[in-house]
Amino acid sequence: MTPLARSREPGWSVQTGHLPPFVIAGPVRPAGALFEVVQALLQAVGEEPEIRVVPWKRAIVLAQEGPRTAVFPLSRLPERESSYRWLVQLYRERYVFFTRHGSDFDIDHPEEMRTRRIAVIRGASTEVALQRLGYQHLVEANEPRECLRYLQAGMADAVFGAQAIVRYGLRDLPDRQAYLLSVPQMTMMSWLAGSHDFTDGDASRLQEAMRVLRASGAYARILANYGLLP
């Protein structure tokens, strides 16, 4: 895409977490479906910041503090509305519970399991959403692999997370058939969001870049490369 007119404001900083297949912190360089989407959007608006992969809780705090610091993929919740400038929608995520075969966590009736221990990513939207629904015992982890370890070690009765992340984490396990997934319990739109010193013009340029990325078919091709659907 031809770069859109670049902002005259200072350069950007962009933070994210290890959330495969959306962001994958590899040994050489990060990758992932939304990593590639955000890279394409930044290039289109003439910005070239390094996208840094840090612990997720740190990423969302840095994006509140600025200056001109963005974070993705961040779900837009009422509790977060005033804390960020919401720049551009990235992907609609579906959220599920998963547990092991033989667990007494009823995967078909999770609404009856509110007193069980549920592993979630520290600082993620899932933590806020489950608290709002009355789940009382949340076990915080730094990344998806740690959630899985908590489940395997008996430190959690189930995990709650994005369906794409759960499936990605299970796909290479030799005993992946030993796990059960619920039907999607909710959906939330993930965003590129940032500190309040981003301008309406910044958001407009990113949204136009996303429109072009979708219209060209590039957005769908990126997602398809990671087994995701638009």
Oligomer: single chain
- Principal-axes geometry comes out as globular
The SS-based structural class is alpha/beta
What ranges have pLDDT less than 50 throughout 5 or more consecutive residues? none
The succession of helices and strands, N to C, reads EHEHEEEHEHEHEEHH
CA gyration radius, whole angstroms: 18 Å
What's the short version?
It is built from seven helices and nine strands, in the order βαβαβββαβαβαββαα. Helices cover 31% and strands 25% of the residues.
Provide structural commentary.
- The protein is globular and about 55 Å long.
- The two termini are 20 Å apart.
- Strands 1, 2, 3, 4, 5, 6, 7, 8 and 9 form a 9-stranded mixed β-sheet that branches.
- By secondary structure, the protein is an alpha/beta fold.
- The mean pLDDT is 92.
- It contains 7 helices and 9 strands; from the N terminus they run E-H-E-H-E-E-E-H-E-H-E-H-E-E-H-H.
- Helix 1 packs across helix 6 and helix 1 runs antiparallel to helix 7.
What are the key terms here?
single chain; alpha/beta; nine-stranded mixed sheet; 230 residues
